[in-house]
Amino acid sequence: MIADAKDFITPHITDSHTLDYPCFRSGFVCEYELPRWNPIHIGRFALDISPTRHVVMLWIAALLCIVFTLLALRAHNRKTREGKAPSGFGNGLEALVLYLRNEVVLPNVGAHGNAYVPYLLTLFFFILFANMISGHVVLLALISLIFTFATWILVPLPIAMAIAISLLELFIAFLQAFIFTLLSTVFIGLIREGAH
Question: What's the predicted TM-score (pTM) here?
Answer without folding.
Answer: 0.68
